[in-house]
Design a protein that fits this description.
This protein is of the alpha/beta class and 248 residues long. It has a single domain, classed as Aldolase class I (TIM Barrel), CATH 3.20.20. The protein is built from 10 helices and 8 strands. Helix 8 links the parallel strand 6 and strand 7. The longest helix is centred in the last third of the chain and has 19 residues. The protein is globular and about 45 Å long. The structure holds phosphoenolpyruvate. Phosphoenolpyruvate binds next to strand 8.
């Protein structure tokens, strides 16, 4: 398996002045035993990538368009992210599924475009609170996984993030048993589809991860890192999560 991955999702937060956090982060995670990634708003990728050059912080996008180019006002193609210095892209985040009506087929098409542009794609899946209460968690996640992940996915180019929608930005987290149940399910389903290679596909947990709960989450079976929103905005907080992952 590749190194574990601590990925930060800045969402629609950050201005040019926020790039100072990358200097601080790069200094704090020097020698980390895991991969470190920050996905800022697209407008900041090129500047952030320039600042991160020579450090062990990767820079990524938060979405891409499935087409290579064309009449798609306001959209960004995968090759444009790569050209700006991105190495990864988050796809199918629940906020995009909800705000932009992205379907599993849309996400798969974007994932294929990301792969063609040489980006590692981080494909998000996760249930709503209503779906969990109705006992549909694994069925929902299984459908999202089957529909969103391209047939050609490998451990080298694809990462899966389990993000329960009800845990994102709420301060609430599933129990460690609930995280283990979903991550074991993901590993099993991916291995059935992709064979032995899927044993090395990294599975991230996301949803209210912070320095204080990171170590216990990283000790759960089949958790290979985290996708972090709020706690990735401040270098000191994110460095605490990176340090917990390095020690896991
Ligand atoms: C996210 O946006 O992917 C996320 C997990 O957010 P937070 O860490 O703030 O819950």
């Amino acid at each position: 398996m590749s190194k574990k991955l601590a990925a930060g999702n800045w969402k629609m937060n950050g201005l040019a002045a926020s790039l100072a956090e990358i200097d601080a982060l790069a200094g704090a995670v020097k020698g980390a035993g895991c991969e470190v990634l920050i996905c800022p708003p697209a407008i900041l990728i090129a500047q952030m990538a320039a600042k991160a050059k020579g450090s062990n912080v990767f820079v990524g996008g938060q979405d891409c368009h499935p087409k290579v180019s064309g009449a798609h006002t306001g959209d960004v193609a995968a090759a444009m992210l790569a050209d700006a210095g991105a190495s990864h892209v988050i796809l199918g985040h629940s906020e995009r599924r909800a705000d932009h009506g992205e379907s599993d087929a849309d996400i798969r098409a974007k994932a294929e475009a990301a792969g063609a542009a040489g980006l590692v794609r981080i494909i998000c899946v996760g249930e709503t609170e209503g779906e969990r209460d109705a006992g549909q968690t694994l069925a929902v996640i299984g459908t999202q996984l089957d529909g969103s992940v391209p047939d050609a996915a490998t451990a080298a180019d694809t990462v899966i993030a389990y993000e329960p929608v009800w845990a994102i930005g709420t301060g609430r987290t599933p129990t460690l048993e609930q995280i283990a149940e979903v991550h074991d399910f993901l590993r099993d389903r991916l291995t059935r589809r992709f064979g032995a290679d899927a044993r090395g596909m990294r599975l991230l947990y996301g949803g209210s991860v912070k320095p204080s709960n990171a170590a216990e989450i990283f000790a759960v079976s089949n958790v290979d890192g985290a996708l972090v929103g709020g706690a990735s905005l401040k270098a000191a907080d994110f460095a605490g999560i990176v340090s917990a992952l390095s020690a896991a």
